[in-house]
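Consider one such protein record:
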Amino acid sequence: MKGSGYREYQQACAHGPRRFNAVAVYKRAQGTNDGALRAAVGRLLCAVEGIELETLNVLVGIGWSGLGGHPSHAELKKQHPSIPTMLAPLANAPTLRVDTQGDVLVQVAAETETDRLFALRLAEVLLAPEAELREEWFGVRRGLGREAFGYRDVHTRSEEYSRGGPLELALIKSGAAAGGGWLLYQRFNQNVGAFCALPDADRDDVMGIDPNGGAPRGPATRLGHVVLARKYRGKQKGWFVRRGFPYRERGEEGLCFLALAAAPESFTEALDAMAGTGGGGTDALLAYVEAREGGVYFVPPSAEWIAPGVRPIALPHAVKDLERQAPLILAELTPAALEYAMSARKFGAFTGALGQEVIKPELRPSVEAANWLISQMSSTSPSAAYAELAKLLAKSLAQANAANLEAGEYVTLEP
């Protein structure tokens, strides 16, 4: 996580479906002016930039009103005049979007619950007293990327960014805000009881896919959610990268929808497509979901950009006590071990399509020879040890392929 620049923050939107996720929204305290609010955001971002923890990603956004008086405010206002009314409710789709705009949004994606708690405490402490927590939602982990209705989070694979490039699409490329981006947040409550009471084919019809992301079990409607989403594809204002996560709290279950883009108008284009603005009918999914909270936020390029001259401060004990208390991780699951495996993949140790990868034929004999040497160290039966290693290798490859096929590259929309 350590580093500077927008790519470090936006990695929170690159979380995998198995991460511990959270979103927290803050309102400015009474009497806090725009400059003071930006200073608080700068303190938090300065701390985020200094976190030396590869298992934690934190993204911070500031509401439009907090940019008042910033040198880039006039340019951004001229480029995006509709931001203040971007999430106004639509008469033909009243459950689709809602504007409960906050002043600061913090998204967390962590490998452990302790890391998530650390980030949330860090935000609460460093944003005070200028900003006060208004809402906070913890994600739940259901399989590999499945939402409350049981459907896999749909993604689109693209060779253009199949190895970590999608978030570049959300960067502002030039101007005073270069390196920044825009974030949309909408929390949708899902009526699980009503949706799951539908017959299987009807549920697929509403979603536009089957639970595993394939073709529906019945004839697909033109108003199915994924059908409409794929028609949008960011044709006018460009791409956005969608990174929502399912939640359940206080009896409510649904989706915290978060998306990142270089142009905020891409958000309203996608929402308008779901609402059927301009004809064509509304998204069938809207009968079973309702937006409860939402807002549009600017994600600064760096702490220095939002609060020039900001410097790191000492972490208070409430945060510091959590800094290195992550639970024990087995050797095969440490970040370094995972990085080693991913590097082997990156450098060409495997071949085949995503979800069907195997060890390259020219490398396979060496792997088997290594297993044989290890088996000879067994104090019981070398042959049984060799067979067990071979079985576990095959199992690990099968599970990795299943996970990759299910989660894909976790990319969601492309033009």
Summary: Residues 1-13, 156-164, 324-332, 408-415 have pLDDT under 50 and may be disordered. The longest helix spans residues 382-407.
